[in-house]
């Protein structure tokens, strides 16, 4: 099928009347962090015809709603794929990953990391929690106590020696708090591999080949509009848009190549060894 026939012009609002007749409305749970915006840009801006019902959630809720059958597709934390017990397939070629510093997943601390005894957790993404536990034990050889708290850094650091914060809040805090570990950087330093934080996943028969192409095309459009995404995100602080652009282009990796697959499987092996998941899953992808 010609892509132009499927997607039409990206400069015009799509008409529902022109949507492919093979589609039915499918519920999609996704995260509205800055790093997800390139993936969903074409969908959110109406630059590509689709019949996805887009619903914003935090990462852990995306996975739970997919597991419960409330949605057909979710942008899920990678640890949740292992917990799905083979029930899901992955949309190929798309991920939220890093190969070095990620900037938006960080452990902030009050003093020397070796003296950390209690860590406050932002549990919005269980992948980041698992990654932190792996790094603290395997790289820094410490086993602190963990407590769950809302992601308010000042309050977290009053109650604990360190605090895990993810997403846009971590981007904000890292410019204010020099004492922090970048978990993406620490993972790549330890393993030499990328780290995969999240990806599109759905039940086996949830997506058609055309719908997989739509998701890939949405990112293609988003990747061509990084400056616009960054400027929109910096509303009120226009001087910050370059920081956001650099984050999206230098810290975040959106491909899901063999290197990312290897990094993901390494993560699953560590998580299994530490009892964070019950089995090491095979990776199953939709056809594109």
From TrEMBL:
<keyword id="KW-0474">Menaquinone biosynthesis</keyword>
<comment type="pathway">
    <text>Quinol/quinone metabolism; menaquinone biosynthesis.</text>
</comment>
<feature type="region of interest" description="Disordered">
    <location>
        <begin position="1"/>
        <end position="21"/>
    </location>
</feature>
<dbReference type="Pfam" id="PF02621">
    <property type="entry name" value="VitK2_biosynth"/>
</dbReference>
<dbReference type="GO" id="GO:0009234">
    <property type="term" value="P:menaquinone biosynthetic process"/>
</dbReference>
<protein>
    <recommendedName>
        <fullName>Chorismate dehydratase</fullName>
        <ecNumber>4.2.1.151</ecNumber>
    </recommendedName>
</protein>
<comment type="similarity">
    <text>Belongs to the MqnA/MqnD family. MqnA subfamily.</text>
</comment>
<dbReference type="GO" id="GO:0016836">
    <property type="term" value="F:hydro-lyase activity"/>
</dbReference>
<dbReference type="InterPro" id="IPR030868">
    <property type="entry name" value="MqnA"/>
</dbReference>
<keyword id="KW-0456">Lyase</keyword>
<dbReference type="InterPro" id="IPR003773">
    <property type="entry name" value="Menaquinone_biosynth"/>
</dbReference>
<feature type="compositionally biased region" description="Polar residues">
    <location>
        <begin position="1"/>
        <end position="14"/>
    </location>
</feature>
<comment type="function">
    <text>Catalyzes the dehydration of chorismate into 3-[(1-carboxyvinyl)oxy]benzoate, a step in the biosynthesis of menaquinone (MK, vitamin K2).</text>
</comment>
């Amino acid at each position: 099928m010609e892509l132009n026939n499927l997607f039409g012009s990206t400069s015009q609002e799509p008409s529902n009347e022109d949507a492919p007749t093979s589609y039915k409305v499918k519920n999609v749970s996704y995260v509205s962090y800055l790093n997800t915006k390139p993936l969903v840009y074409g969908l959110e801006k109406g630059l590509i015809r689709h019949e996805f019902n887009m619903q914003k959630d935090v990462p852990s809720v995306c996975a739970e709603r997919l597991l419960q059958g409330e949605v057909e597709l979710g942008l899920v934390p990678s640890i949740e794929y292992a917990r799905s017990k083979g029930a899901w397939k992955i949309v190929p070629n798309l991920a939220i990953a890093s190969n070095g510093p990620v900037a938006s997943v960080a452990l902030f601390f009050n003093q020397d990391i070796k003296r950390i005894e209690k860590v406050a957790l932002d549990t919005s993404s269980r992948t980041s929690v698992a990654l932190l536990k792996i790094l603290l034990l395997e790289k820094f050889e410490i086993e602190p106590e963990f407590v769950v708290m809302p992601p308010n850094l000042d309050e977290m650091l009053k109650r604990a020696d360190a605090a895990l914060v993810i997403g846009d809040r971590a981007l904000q805090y890292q410019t204010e708090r020099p004492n922090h570990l970048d978990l993406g950087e620490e993972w790549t330093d330890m393993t030499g591999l990328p780290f995969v934080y999240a990806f599109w996943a759905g039940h086996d028969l949830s997506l058609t080949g055309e719908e997989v192409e739509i998701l890939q095309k949405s990112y293609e459009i988003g990747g061509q509009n990084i400056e616009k995404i960054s400027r929109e995100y910096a509303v009120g602080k226009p001087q910050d848009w370059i920081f956001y652009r650099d984050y999206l282009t230098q810290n975040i990796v959106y491909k899901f190549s063999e290197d990312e697959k290897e990094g993901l499987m390494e993560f699953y092996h560590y998580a299994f060894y530490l009892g964070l998941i019950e089995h090491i899953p095979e990776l199953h992808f939709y056809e594109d």
